[in-house]
Amino acid sequence: MKTFAPRALQEVRFESTVVEGLPADPRTENVPRQVPEAAYTFVTPTPVATPRLLAWSDDLAERLGLVRPSSVGAAVDILAGNTLAPGMRPYAARYGGHQFGNWAGQLGDGRAITLGELIAVDGSRQELQLKGAGPTPYSRFADGRAVLRSSLREFLCSEAMHHLGVPTTRALSLVATGEPVVRDMFYDGHPQPEPGAIVCRVAPTFIRFGNFEIHSAADEHAVLRRLVEHVIRAHYPQFDAADPAAPAAWFAEICRRTAVMIAHWMRVGFVHGVMNTDNMSILGLTLDYGPYGWLEGYDPQWTPNTTDASGRRYCYGNQPQIGLWNLARLAGALLPIIEDHDALHQGLELYRSVYHSTWQGLLAAKLGLDRIEGEDDTALVDDLFSLMAAVETDMPILFRALGDDLDEDESGLIERVVRPALYEGADLSQDLMARWQAWFARWRRR
């Protein structure tokens, strides 16, 4: 690996393979509108009053070859959207999406603006994108801003998920804008001003399933083909973009990556909350941290998204199936350019098998087993989740306790492993205690 000295952000020369390779919106006025025949619209971030750095990811910065900036100054001005570094050509992406199962038409980056790409220490290209940097033509009459509350959640969760081993976009910085943003925090009709903030998100690309859907829905097949070829060349170099068979093989790889990502969500109890197709990364990365949450008491029907409380479409237990549904929507969008429709079906079947094998492997590791195989192991797992659901049981605490060096008998294991994971007021009936003892005996024999 080539070594080079860490750089200040304002000294980096940026590039953009998206701008170089995909068609731009010829109109430049920043007003809400429908945008045809384009992959993005050039847009300049809206400056803020008094930007100040609140948080910085040293781990990510080291990978990018960047030095930590002071709390104010040239680098922070870039991270706030007040100025641009050399080579930056900021844009907002155009995409559509299925939201809660229904086609929503044009969506796009309503409050995210991509600044450009830098070359990281490992030679990879990494995009820097500002979330909360002001309105774009895709803002649909919103202000394009973000509040500190949600921005801090995105910064923390992005980095936490990375360090938990979950495929994810990253967050480099969190900047306070010094300006209020009016939001209805509790959705009760009483909006209040809150501190504004901007997150700098980082990923090889922020292209989503919805980028392909919008071109397909609008019969923009030439642009759709260019987008597919661009993504293959830039992000899937194992395939030859000129090979007619490449798009189908590429789709299968997207299915595989998405399956692995969602299996890891299930491993750590992460609930995305809004798995619309416009929030699904074409690289299989966790994207757009909005109303997410973490499963504590085991409940497969739980969702952190209050707007999904009645239908629970995106609850914890539905995530694997929703991933498949979203991939089917992507497959439908690719039909105009992938003639081998059987290959698309094979990609969806690959998702099923990869998700199953990955989830089984992750579960085995959580239970201290080499593998999960056969009916007895399947019953062992099913019975464990049934026991956790019978009385509110904290899933992370219980699995963490199962990883300890345990030498107690079955009754002692209930006291050491199960009771600390029960919520206040929860208790075990005699029947449940007997079922737990029987489960521990089977687990030990295994």
Return Rg in Å. Answer: 24 Å
Strand content: 15-25%
Q: Report the uncertain regions.
A: none
Q: What is the H-and-E element order? A: HEEHHEEEEEEHEEHHHEEHHHHHH
Mean pLDDT: 96
Which structural class fits the helix and strand makeup? alpha+beta
Judging from the principal axes of the Cα atoms, what is the shape? globular
N-end to C-end Cα span: 44 Å
Question: So what's the oligomer here?
Answer: single chain
Annotation, overall tally of beta strands? 12
Total number of helical segments?
Answer: 13
Characterise this structure:
The model has no long low-confidence stretch (mean pLDDT 96). Helix 10 packs antiparallel against helix 13 (430-445) and helix 12 crosses helix 13. With 446 residues, this protein is of the alpha+beta class. It has 13 helices and twelve strands. It has three domains: 9-204, no CATH class; 210-366, no CATH class; 374-445, no CATH class. It is globular and about 70 Å long. It starts with 16 loop residues before the first helix and ends with a helix. The protein has helices at residues 17-21, 58-64, 74-79, 148-163, 209-217, 221-235, 246-268, 319-334, 341-366, 374-390, 395-402, 410-418, 430-445; strands spanning 40-42, 52-56, 91-93, 96-99, 102-106, 112-119, 125-131, 146-147, 170-183, 192-203, 270-271, 293-294. 39% of the residues lie in helices and 15% in strands. Strands 2, 6, 7, 8, 9 and 10 form a six-stranded antiparallel β-sheet that branches. The protein has a two-stranded antiparallel ribbon with strand order 1-3.
